[in-house]
Design brief:
The chain has 641 residues and is of the alpha+beta class. The protein is built from 21 helices and 22 strands.
């Protein structure tokens, strides 16, 4: 048999390219800001604001202003020391130009300009400059009383640094407009930026942060954040819709130049709300400071429970999950040389921080429990309840896992599985009711689409312990169908469907069921949401027919536009009260056909906001929910739905 040969493509010195200046950032933006989606877009703002926060950490700044202009440009202004403008001794150009246009140029490499900072690599503002259509830097220099200015386009200076006026103020003002050829189809979300600025104001105690959005046509949106109480105020803010079991524990200490702040409070909630920060940056993936906090909590509470006789000799120790149920905590460290996993700074890697945080929290918590016996007993009782519930849940979970999918589903409408076994290609439609389930089963593509009808409204998992959650038949059906397990046993590698699609009626009951399902997925299968597997289907509201020609309207406004276009014709308009009113063909054409349907992907842009929203909407405390409904009732009436 003849041997098959392939032509080998040449590779020599001429194939090796060197990207000069900021071109590397433009070619690979994901390495520097995490991507070109809405998260990457917001990260541009965070990088610039982080520099202002670093001035605050140095004690040189107490006011920061962030403005979103009508043309989508952004201004970040602080009253810090101002970027130096003198000629740099090594590069023979203005230090301002060096900082703004050169990677790895900054004052945060141990040169004495900053004791602690969030900016470490000298990459942040220069990367933002590279990814902006234009940028303008204005420095009010207190060293000589002059205002300096320089403009850039796609990272390139458009002239030298110029002195343009005299000034008595100090600080830096950066204005930039993201490059629309890199960030396509995205825009700033005021709520996302507001949450980030709020977090920074909590962690950078005593700093005033002002956020202005000039884009609304009727009036600018304005929010000002200032918290004298720091992270202690943050914990109280997070628990404002929950019932605390005790007054917050707060500890602040410095070990070997590392400042450690921790605030802890238990509530009657079933969820854990813990947020770690390093040099004011929210390390969303945790790190060694979070590991130290968790280790201290587990060990100290177990030691106290044994010593006080609240945990019997033969009883097993509380697990980490047991001691974290209902916990709200903030751990914030300020390190002179923090090591992050990447430029986007989502995880702290300093090994020594774990022991420092663990030592500080263990000592403070042990003293708190000894001094506050009533609070200590409430905390241990919460852990005991959690431990017993998890033991009962473990048995229920094992039962669910051991059974096959069809054995575990006890709903009248059984799971209608698909023939495809590759989860990358498969979809699971979770459908409201047997009637809609019947239409969906008949209308689907059986090769890759599975249907799971649910009877009625599932359990509100925000108000239920894990044992009660796992004893619910609808929840059992969901867990069995997806194959991932839940909670600490969740395993994404076992997922049976690449897309999980919520298909509910476009009415109040449908919205309620959808919210209950979203609560379940967020609280018990959060990785599924974070990895982009959860979607919401968009069925039409109206069928508009002219003779045999049929069109579908998905909003009230779309229906009105259609009726205006067809004003001179005889039109038959049908309002779909529920999915069950649609025949299988109509359901396929409008909602299930991948070529024509519209799906909304469920994402979590900010965990703290999502946590608060679910607590407020689905928790036990009524007044916050009433205020939310009263505030947004007018908006809902005016929506195009």
């Amino acid at each position: 048999m003849a041997k098959k040969t392939e032509r080998v493509i040449g590779y020599d010195a001429s194939d090796v390219q060197v990207l000069e200046g900021l071109e590397a950032v433009r070619r690979r933006p994901g390495m520097y800001v995490g991507g070109t989606d809405i998260r990457g877009l917001h990260h541009l703002v965070y990088e610039v604001v982080d520099n202002a926060i670093d001035e605050a950490l140095a004690g040189a700044c107490d006011e920061i202003e962030l403005i979103i202009h009508q043309d989508e440009s952004v201004t970040v202004r602080d009253n810090g020391r101002g970027i130096p403008t003198a000629i740099h001794p090594q590069k023979n150009i203005s230090t301002l130009e060096l900082v703004m246009t050169t990677l790895h140029a900054g004052a945060k490499f141990g040169g004495g300009g900053y004791k602690v900072s969030g900016g470490l690599h000298g990459v942040g503002v220069s990367a933002v400059n590279a990814l902006s259509a234009w940028m303008e830097a204005v420095v009010d220099n207190p060293r000589d009383g002059k205002r300096y200015r320089q403009r850039y386009e796609r990272g390139r200076p458009q002239g030298p640094v110029e002195a343009v006026a005299k000034t008595k103020r100090s600080g830096t003002t950066i204005t930039f407009r993201y490059d629309p050829t890199i960030f396509k189809g995205v825009t700033y979300r005021f709520e996302t930026l507001a949450q980030r600025m709020r977090e920074m104001a909590f962690v950078a105690r005593g700093v005033t942060i002002r956020l202005v959005d000039e884009r609304p046509s009727d009036f600018p949106r304005l929010m000002t954040f200032y918290f004298e109480g720091g992270i202690l105020s943050f914990v109280r803010y997070l628990n404002r819709n929950r019932t605390p079991l005790h007054s917050p524990l707060y500890v602040e200490r410095e070990i070997d130049g590392v400042e450690i702040e921790v605030a802890i409070q238990y509530t009657d909630s079933y969820s854990e709300s813990v947020y770690p920060f390093a040099n004011t940056i929210h390390t969303m993936d945790g790190g060694t400071h979070l590991t130290g906090l968790r280790a201290a909590l587990t060990r100290t509470i177990n030691d106290y429970a044994r010593k006080a006789g609240l945990l019997k000799e033969k009883s097993p120790n509380f697990s980490g999950d047991d001691v974290r149920e209902g916990l709200t905590a903030i751990v914030s460290i300020k390190h002179p040389d923090p090591q992050f996993e990447s430029q986007t700074k989502v995880k702290l890697m300093n090994a020594e921080v774990k022991g420092m945080v663990e030592s500080v929290v263990s000592e403070a918590l042990a003293e708190f429990l000894e001094r506050n016996s009533s609070s200590a007993r409430k905390i241990v009782a919460k852990c005991l309840t959690s431990s017993r519930a998890r033991a009962a849940a473990r048995q229920a979970r094992d039962l669910v896992i051991r059974k096959s999918v069809l054995e575990s589903l006890t709903l009248p409408g059984k799971l209608a599985d698909c023939s495809e076994r590759d989860s990358v290609r498969t979809e699971l439609f979770i459908v409201e009711g047997d009637s809609a389930g019947g239409s969906a089963k008949q209308g689907r593509d059986r090769h890759f689409q599975a249907i799971l009808p649910l009877r009625g409204k599932i359990l509100n998992t925000e108000r239920a312990g894990i044992n009660k959650v796992l004893s619910n038949k609808e929840v059992q059906a969901l867990i069995s169908a997806l194959g991932t397990g839940i909670g600490d046993q969740f395993d994404m590698s076992n997922i049976r469907y690449g897309r999980v699609i919520l298909l509910m009626d476009a009415d109040v009951d449908g919205a309620h069921i959808r919210t209950l399902l979203l609560t379940f997925f967020y609280r018990h299968m959060q990785p599924l949401v974070e990895s982009g597997h959860l979607f919401i289907a968009q069925p039409p509201l109206y069928r508009v027919a002219v003779g045999k020609k049929v069109r579908y309207a998905y909003t009230e406004a779309e229906k009105e536009r259609m009726l205006e276009e067809l004003a001179d014709k005889k039109v038959d308009v049908q309002r779909y009260k529920g999915l069950g009113e649609m025949n299988p063909t109509q359901l396929w054409e409008t909602t299930m056909d991948p070529e024509r349907r519209t799906l909304l992907q469920v994402t979590v842009e900010d965990a703290a906001v999502a946590d608060q929203t679910f607590t407020m909407l689905m928790g036990d405390t009524v007044p916050p929910r009433r205020r939310f409904i009263q505030t947004h009732a007018k908006e809902v009436r005016n929506l195009d739905v």
